[in-house]
């Protein structure tokens, strides 16, 4: 999750340095971000974090 936050913080600066007219950042998470599971709690928590950011 920390790496994702770092990328989201640095991406706009990178896109501005390339002088792109538009920029899009896509956040992708699996279905487990919405519907949890009991055996993979860390995976579900990180996916839910991505879902909540968007």
Biggest beta-sheet profile: none
Total strand segments: 0
Rough outline: elongated
- Helical stretch tally: 2
Classify the beta-strand content into a percent band. Answer: under 5%
> Class by helix and strand content?
mainly alpha
Unreliable spans? none
Give the rounded overall mean pLDDT: 85
| Measured distance between first and last alpha carbons | 13 Å
> Compute the gyration radius: what is it?
14 Å
Percent of residues in helices = 40-55%
Helix-strand blueprint:
Blueprint: H1 2-17, H2 41-53
Would you kindly provide a written description of the structure presented here, covering whatever features stand out?
Keywords: Membrane, Transmembrane, Transmembrane helix. InterPro entries: NAD(P)-bd_dom_sf. The chain crosses the membrane at residues 20-37. With 54 residues, this protein is mainly α. The chain has a domain at 1-30. Helix content is 54%, strand content 0%. The chain contains 2 helices and no strands. The longest helix has 16 residues, at 2-17. The radius of gyration is 14 Å and the shape is elongated. The mean pLDDT is 85.
């Amino acid at each position: 999750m920390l790496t994702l936050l770092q990328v989201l913080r640095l991406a706009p600066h990178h896109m501005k340095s390339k002088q792109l007219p538009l920029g899009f950042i896509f956040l992708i998470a699996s279905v487990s971000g919405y519907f949890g599971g009991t055996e993979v709690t860390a995976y579900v928590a990180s996916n839910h974090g991505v879902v909540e950011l968007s």
